[in-house]
Write a structure and sequence with these properties.
mainly beta
Length: 357
């Protein structure tokens, strides 16, 4: 073998095996470590119940929790480079979205409904919604329901019905709004004869979103929400969701403070005997409570998760104004639009995702 052939073979062997090439002054070859490569784990959001942060304790031990900034989402797929998630069969993923939007439109995107302090009016109506007026004594002949339209005045003690595809929002006195979700039946009683307005909302079927505001004087109305079982009274301005069924009143409080009990009277002056005092703010996060006559064997975390999923679904379906603003690409949102979105409460929850092939 001549020198030229030997050098050619040596050159090719170095190219094919760079890690085995000799270095230095003839010392034995050493293997060079490969640079670390980020391993992307992929998970698929499962069709499972969502949970509030505090409800995850002890739920699924040794399951990683991915928080904001630790993953990206594309449709129902989650991509992450967090090492703790690599090789895991499931993770919890932190989700965040807007709570129910106000019925008042953003500035410049519609005229707000003006409602006198002593009046209740329909602010928004979608799908099939009817109103049944109250008669005393009850009419012998069956009263015919009235089709509901925006701007319509709601008589005292009237009952509103939303069909499976209907929803309606009522503005009371310019300070408080009540929004019926689909397939709900709710009666309203509003009294302004005293120093502080009194509002009574009876959920005969279904669920409502409630935003309790302040009067121009700074006072807050006294508001009681009754279910088929159980009642709540608000203490100051509040943002909440209440669902009623024949055995329970379920409440998700996002902002404010309320009292929850069995039979709260309309006058809410003496409050020390109420059994459940619930408060929610940016620190505590949303709070879920149930006033129930069901058996004590009910799984509390499962009940919380089911109410949370129902409330989040309804908010997502009804947030028409938010979807419109978020869909704007050009021109960019005005400062009024950005302020409008910034003032809407957001809610954080966790959903489970499973390993995706």
């Amino acid at each position: 073998m001549n020198l030229r052939t030997f050098l050619a073979i040596l050159f090719i062997s170095v190219l094919l095996n760079p890690a085995d090439a000799q270095v230095g002054d003839g010392a034995s070859a050493t293997t060079q470590p490969l640079a670390p490569v980020n391993q992307i784990s992929r998970f698929q959001l499962a069709d499972a119940l969502p949970y509030l942060p505090g409800s995850l304790t002890g739920l699924t031990p040794n399951t990683p929790i991915l928080r904001a900034g630790e993953f990206r989402q594309q449709d129902r797929t989650i991509f992450t480079e967090v090492p703790q998630a690599q090789g895991k069969q499931a993770v919890w993923v932190q989700m965040s979205n807007y709570w129910i939007e106000p019925i008042t439109p953003p500035p410049g995107r519609g005229e707000p409904l003006i409602v006198p302090i002593n009046s209740m009016r329909v602010a928004e109506a979608q799908g099939e919604v009817t109103l049944l007026e109250f008669t005393n004594p009850p009419a012998k002949a069956k009263t015919k329901p009235i089709e509901v339209n925006p701007g319509m005045e709601v008589p005292d003690q009237a009952t509103l019905n939303s069909a499976d595809t209907g929803s309606v929002a009522i503005l009371i006195g310019g300070h408080t709004s009540i929004r019926l979700v689909p397939n709900s039946r709710v009666q309203f009683h509003y009294d302004v004869s005293g120093e502080t307005p009194l509002l009574e909302v009876k959920i005969l079927r279904g669920a409502v979103f409630c935003k309790i505001g302040r009067l121009p004087s700074g006072r807050v109305p006294d508001v009681a929400v009754h279910g088929q079982v159980g009642s709540l009274a608000t203490m100051g301005s509040c943002d909440l969701f209440a669902q009623s069924d024949p055995i329970s009143l379920h409440v998700c409080l996002v902002r404010g403070k309320l009292l929850l009990g069995d039979a709260i009277p309309f006058a809410v002056g003496n409050m020390e005997w109420y059994p459940a005092d619930v408060e929610a703010n940016g620190v505590t996060g949303p709070q879920i409570r149930h006033w129930s006559h069901s058996s004590p064997g009910v799984d509390q975390k499962q009940a919380d998760a089911r109410l949370l999923r129902f409330a989040l679904h309804q908010a997502d379906e009804l947030n028409v104004k938010i979807k419109t603003l978020l869909g704007v690409t050009a021109p960019p949102l005005s400062s009024d639009d950005q302020t409008y979105l910034a003032n809407i409460p957001k809610i954080t929850w966790y959903e489970q995702a499973t390993a995706s092939p």
